[in-house]
Specification:
The protein is an alpha+beta fold and about 260 residues long. About 50% of the residues lie in helices and about 10% in strands. A hairpin with a 2-residue loop joins strand 4 and strand 5 (about 140-145). The termini are far apart. Bound molecules: zinc ion (2 copies). It holds the Pfam family RRM_1. Keywords: Metal-binding, Repeat, RNA-binding, Zinc, Zinc-finger. It comes from Limulus polyphemus. This is Splicing factor U2AF 35 kDa subunit-like isoform X1.
Amino acid sequence: MAEYLASIFGTEKDKVNCSFYFKIGACRHGDRCSRIHNKPTFSQTVLIQNLYHNPQNSAQSADGSHLLTTTTVGEEEIQEHFDNFFEDVFIELEDKYGEIEEMNVCDNLGDHLVGNVYVKFRREEDAEKAVADLNNRWFAGRPVYAELSPVTDFREACCRQYEMGLSNMSQNWECTRSGFCNFMHLKPISRELRRELYGRRRKRMSRSRSRSRSYDRNRRSRSRERKRRSRSRERRDRRSRSREKDRKDREERVGRF
Ligand SMILES: [Zn+2]
Ligand SMILES: [Zn+2]
């Protein structure tokens, strides 16, 4: 019996524990769920709820007038806005609390998942520190809400259809539930940023704390260089005009801790 219970723990067959909370760290029923949400006492993963605000979503309005204005926010700007947000949060959390194994941001639209940021630290102690500290903070004008999350395997938490759509770059595989799917739809960062944040970590982590500070500073200026280069390639003509504006916009939209 005990073996059977262990084998179904957190699955759909488990009538006591909520499989959504167990796998995805968030369930649409929230506190009113009829099954138990087992909040972990220790975990490597921190969930920061509703942290990322996609400007595409906030531009949507009930009367449909957003349809006329969406063309002004291009895919490229959205990606850049997201990359900036991701990089800022990643670097600040890693500097303050410790090495991050992976960080993921939900692109879902349902209230319990929209803009959720999952940060998996290498060490449980760092996750604990982060939760305690983050709950006293504000981000982009709103209080931050962070908790330890049971999610450690993001493959299990992700929507298969959505993942296949991303890897095939094909519209045919779109998840039929689109943004209101209850599995994670993770918003991808650009390849350049992925390489930058995850690619150099071995080298970086072997450095001492004091040296890593100056290393980070170099890394930051390299990152600025990367952004400048990509901008100049794509928008050479309006570069000088847009750089100052980008910086201001970014501070406004992305916000800061
Ligand atoms: Zn539930
Ligand atoms: Zn889906």
